[in-house]
Specification:
Length: 440
């Protein structure tokens, strides 16, 4: 099949890139390879409201879809004022010549209905230059209070069809919301959509909370609470107001918990005197097992996605570095050897990379490396960047950034694994310690 698709790539040597497949070789597709991209131009006309009740949703949902796609840095929306055609009926034929004229390579059309207490959204994705639909049209439905999620689901489908990658828009982030002056900061757990919308608070703020971590299914949150004055591990079912204490050893400080990939085990740090080691607790039986025993501080453990290994930080070599060991304990292998100190490691859901915080020469960085420590890349640099967490597809990281000064605020940022597309995640107040949950 003949095509007029232009090449999209500038050949440079970053990790994340995009290119458009020629139609004679297959449908319109962004392929992630080894360059950097000129974002694909696309158009999202206002979705058609198929009944009077849908008018309150159609425009907003089409804008959420566009914000999701443009926010990746892989796509560039053609402004509505540049459109030659409009979409007045979901079933009407597409005037491909009008969309070609403004160089829209992909076109997303949609319609919304909202009668009978349900909001229904349906959509199609078109390869404009090939004049054909990519995949099949789909529809999603929800109650009115879940309508915004429908747009994320549409964007997920569009992203997957155009990139061949797993999506991440219909996901949530649990984090620590921060209010008040720096010396009297109130911290409470909160949960939000990945883009900062729909914030809900999970704790009251009466006790200091740190480091929330989602369960693999997104239904529970582990975190560290100072409710009793000493750090204790709590677990909270999302949507509940009452947490449950998971105190592995009476009288000892436990913190930095994280679920295993199968959610049967919690790994955490336990302090006994001046020594801190990594332990594991079986959730069903509450039986515990010590995994490290070096005379040093071991903390911030994170499982590999297959559950076979654990990465953690330790100062056993004299400075804070990253180590990998079998999930059941045993000999640990150091993997970080660059200048500076390394901490807060977290394994990618793809299993190919480990993200970390690095402190060197008075600056903090978010970085990634291969699981053997090779190919280290620093993605950010600032006064204080820390605590990375992975998007469900392993292509984007979210982290905390603190600004300098007595009134310095902490906010959330995201960046892709090439170091491109650094942007702030808007929240109603200060925010830190994000943990990105799975696709809903």
């Amino acid at each position: 099949m003949k095509t007029c698709l232009a090449a999209l790539l500038t050949a440079v040597t970053l990790i994340l890139s995009v290119q458009t497949a020629a139609a004679q070789d297959g449908p319109l597709r962004i392929e992630i390879t080894e360059g950097v991209i000129e974002p694909m131009p696309y158009a999202v006309p206002a979705f058609v409201a198929e009944d009077s009740a849908a008018q309150a949703y159609a425009e907003e949902l089409s804008r959420v879809v566009a914000a999701d796609l443009t926010g990746t840095g892989l796509f560039r929306e053609i402004p509505r004022e540049a459109h030659i055609s409009s979409i007045s009926s979901f079933a009407a034929p597409v005037a491909f010549a009008d969309w070609k004229a403004i160089n829209a390579q992909a076109l997303i059309t949609g319609a919304v209905s909202a009668e009978g207490g349900r909001v229904v959204i349906k959509f199609r994705v078109w390869d404009v230059f090939a004049g054909q639909e990519l995949g099949q049209g789909m529809q999603f439905a929800s109650t009115p209070d879940g309508a915004r999620r429908l747009a994320h689901k549409v964007a997920d489908q569009v992203y997957a069809r155009l990139t061949g990658e797993q999506p991440y828009f219909d996901s949530r982030v649990v984090f620590v919301s921060e209010t008040g002056p720096k010396n009297e900061r109130v911290k409470r757990l909160a949960i939000m959509d990945y883009d900062g919308a729909n914030v809900q608070y999970l704790t009251s703020g009466n006790a200091l909370v740190l480091a929330p971590r989602f369960s693999p299914d997104g239904g529970r949150v582990l975190y560290t609470s100072y409710e009793t004055g000493a750090p204790q591990i709590h677990v909270l079912n999302v949507g509940d107001v009452q947490s449950r204490v998971m105190q592995p050893s009476e009288g000892m400080m436990s913190f930095a918990p994280r679920f295993s990939p199968d959610a049967t085990t919690v790994i955490y740090s336990l302090t006994n005197g001046s020594n801190t080691d990594i332990w594991a607790m079986d959730i069903a039986s509450t039986a515990t097992r010590q995994l490290t025993s070096a005379p040093s501080i071991e903390t911030a453990p994170s499982y590999a996605p297959d559950g076979s290994q654990i990465v953690f930080e330790s100062d056993r070599s004299g400075t804070q570095q990253l180590y990998v060991m079998p999930a059941g304990g045993g000999e640990a292998t150091r993997i970080s050897f660059g200048e500076g100190r390394y901490g807060t490691p977290v394994w990618s859901p793809r299993g190919d990379l480990i993200a970390f915080t690095k402190q060197n020469a008075g600056r903090f960085h978010i970085g990634v490396m291969r699981t053997d420590g090779s190919e280290e890349r620093l993605l950010t640099a600032s006064f204080l960047d820390e605590g990375p967490t992975w998007a469900p597809n392993g292509r984007v990281l979210m982290f905390s950034r603190e600004t300098q000064g007595a009134q310095g605020a902490t906010t959330l940022y995201s960046v892709d694994i090439s170091g491109r597309n650094l942007k702030r995640v808007r929240t109603p107040a200060g925010a830190s310690d994000p943990s990105w949950g799975p696709l809903q």
